Task: structure prediction
Amino acid sequence: MQLLNQFLFGVFPYIALAVLVLGSVLRFDREQYTWRTGSSQLLRRKQLVLGSVLFHVGILAIFGGHFIGLLTPIWVFDALGVSHGAKQILAIVAGGFAGTLCLVGGLLLLHRRLFDPRIRATSSFGDTAILVLLLAQLILGLATIPLSAGHLDGHEMVKFMSWAQGVFTFRPGVAAYVADVHPIFKAHLVLGMTILLVFPFTRLVHMLSAPIWYLNRRGWQLVRTKRALPLRRVAAAPVYPTVPVSPAARSAPIQAVRPEALKAAE
Result:
């Protein structure tokens, strides 16, 4: 059991992070055509909008909370006067609310993907599998709330902070920090690292693309394709000389002409 704990929380984190970084870089470099979400917004649009808003608002709040809560040094909270217990309560309340929003939105998106034949036909196995993994991770995260409520002194939270910061600072023996935590917490951590492991091979890569370049882009469409398209010569548009217009012609009123008059003039 000790060997398994050492692998899951001392070795597996580095495997997941290495695959996350290298896999994302290689996919962006070689497979930019697949770096997309695969829009289906024309089908069941109302359910998509509601589910997508709830899911994305919730998951962004969860990601931000985990990032700040786990990777901020403990001495920063101490310097700000935030006790471990207060931080624990904040994590329970904010995490529970954001997790519920994300879970409801994710279930709406999963229902839409599974029970609409048109959307199901355009969905890959990876699209559905990663959504199921995220929902399972949300359920595990919400299941940790009653356990966290029994440790309002924040002692358990400090263990996870020490483990996460130890992983990123290459501190030896980090697996010992979470050796005696509840199995639900361990399952939550392992599934989270598994999601990081498969991240580069799913549509989640769109999280790494911020559309800031579109703000300065003119009205053209950027199309990527794997096919080698032949170069086509396009004839330039003819340039007509500018005909000067007299001031009298500019101020003359515009008169409507009947079609019969035009035919007679011809």
In short: The chain has one domain: 2-213.
